[in-house]
Structure formats: structure tokens, C-alpha cells
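Sample 1 of the test manifest.
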Amino acid sequence: MFKMLKPNPVILHKTKPQVELEIQACIGCNECLLACPALAEPITIDVLNRETIAGPISASVERFTHACYQCGACVSPCPVGLHRDAMMMWLKVRLLKDPKEVHMER
Amino acid sequence: MKVTSKKRYPWLITVLTTLGIIILALVTLLIYTRISNDRSPDGTVGLAYAIAGLFFMGLATAGYTLSRRSRKRTVGALNAALNWHICFGIIALFMLFLHSFGNFELVSGTYALFGLVALVISGVIGRILDHFVPRLIAHEVNIALTEQGDDRIESVTRTLQDITTYHKEQVHSFKSQPDLLVAEKDMQAATAHLVSRDGTALPTSWDLAYISLAETPQEIERDAEHYRLVPDRKSSLSDPSALIPGLQEHMAELHTVQQALQRERLYRAIIRYWRVFHVCLSLLTIGLTLWHLEFAATIMFPIYFH
């Protein structure tokens, strides 16, 4: 509980090339998804990584993207020090830029 | 794949549970007020509400904290724990409010209740912030990134550098070699008449005293309309960016992106520090509740164990 009183420094967003590099470095251990308090339904890390970079976004990933509130709980459990919150922010921006990209499971 | 209501509305079961328990508590209160006139917090039902409230308060605090620290987790378990945390927090507040029966004479109990009210309100506000602030952040990030997802500041800076380099080259082209040659020829012509006593030409003097202080014809007529090269204040040429087209627009864009970044930083800080505030408030409420329990114990023990 006291750990929460000393939050990590505020990290701003990352650019698309940086997000792509992070996704390439992801080892798919699922730790970030396990630590996420916003994720309500089972999503695999492969699907999330694939849909983060490009292509259509499924309804479940879209719901997760809207639910993500950038708390940063996913950052500290990552064994390779990646920023899943920055990747989710990129997904949010993608949905903002082109909402019609979402078409799966609808 | 069909999306079930459980998947789409994972909070539905917790909302229904909260409503169910609150209705149950209200029904028991109604029945109790019909059969008894004892409405003191330390009465039988008052104590039952206090115990139930404490139980739910403990569940709200410990359940979510333990779930966060648990090693054996499944995907979505923490979200469910968060929903139950909210559910139990609201039930605890309601139960402890019923426990008071509207008596706010005891200072420790009143402070503990107010602490819990503030804690629940801060939690509700936190959830609202969690819903809206990330959307605002996404808008700011959308401003700070280009269509291709690159850093807009970097892109604008590169464009500005290109503009500056281009115009520098343009300006340099005016100070080219032929101009210098013309100037040199003029200088030679001006000093051609300067000869020594033995007839040899004198070199160009470095002495400033050789420069005539008398005004040249151009200087005399400098105020004339056709010599007036310096733009007046009202002229569009007086604008520093007038000679570098596109500079002002890019500078304004840079300013907009910088403001967007500042807002993003602020929104992220709001999310994080509101959580810290909620944790601090929970510690304060636990402290006030323990104080009230200690105070209540000093009253209750002599009655029940005499």
C-alpha cells in the first residue's frame, strides 16, 4: 500500500516507431495483462500486440482500450521493462484517428 | 463470437449485489423500527449494523489489496476485485450510516463516518476521472503525434530547419562574388588619385581619418520616397517572419504541441495523485475507525462483561 504513495515519474506517450520496437521486444509472458485492473475479459497478448501495430481492432480489444485508464500497473511487472500503458495509448490514438477500423465481432 | 452480458458488463453482478444488500438492510431497518423503539447505535441492531459495516469495510480494503499482491492471478481477476472493492465500500458506508441512526453526538464515530463518506466520494470521483481523463490524454497525444505516429515537434522542427536553411542560401546568393568584385573596383577607383610624392600609388589607408564625414548624395536624399527601404511600423514587411514564409504557422504549431504536452502531463499527474490521495484518505479513515472502536470498547466492555 505504501508503494502507491511513491508513484513512478510521469512518462509521456511514445511514438509509433517506439511502440513498434517495444512490441518487437515483448516476450509474451502475459504479466502486464495479469496486473491490469481495467481488463475485464480474456485477451491474449499476441492478439493485443498484433492489433496494436496495425490492422483491424476487435471489439474486445477496443473495449479494453477504452477501459484502460493509464494507471501504469502493467509497467512494473514486465520482466523486460516495456511500457504497455504507452502501447495502449497508441491504440487509443488509433481509435481516435480512425474509429471505423473497428469491425470484428460486431 | 457472441458477446455475453457478463463480458460486456462485468460490473453488473456487483451492482446487483450492492443494491440487493442495501435493500435487505433497509427492509431490516423498517421491520426493526416497527417492533422496537431502541434506535441507539449501541443497541442490538445498531451493533449488528456496525459489525456488518466493519466486515464490508474490511472486505473492501483487504480484498483488493490482497488481490493486487496475489501471485496466482488470472486475466480479469483484478478487474473483478476492483468491482467488488467498490461494491463493498458502498455497502460499508451504508451499513455504518444505518449504525449511526442519525446520532452524530459521539465525536470519534462521527469523524470515522465522515472519513468513510470522503473515502467513498473520492473513490467515485476517481472512477469518473479514470473514465474521462484518459480520453483527454488521447486527444492531447493525437495533437502531439503526426498522422503517421511520429513526434510532431520533431517534424515541425525539421521543417523549420529546412525553411531557415533555404532562406539562408537565398540571402547568401545576394552576397556573391560579383558583388564583392564590384565593391573592390569602386574602392580602387576611389583611391586611384592618391599618389606619393615620387609618383607611386599609395595603398588603401587603414586610417579612418581618410573617410570623409561629408554626407554622400545618397545620404542627403535618404528620406526621399524612392530611397526609403526601411519599412514603417504598419508595413507587413516589419513582421520578422515576413521574409521567411511559413515560419509563423510552424511556430504556432510548435506552441500548440508544447501546450498539448503540458496538458498531457497534467492529466497523467491528476490520475496518479488522485490515487495517492485515495490511499491517504483510506489510511486516515482506518485510523479514525480504530479510534472509534477503542472508544466504543471502553463503553461496551463494562456493560457486557460486568
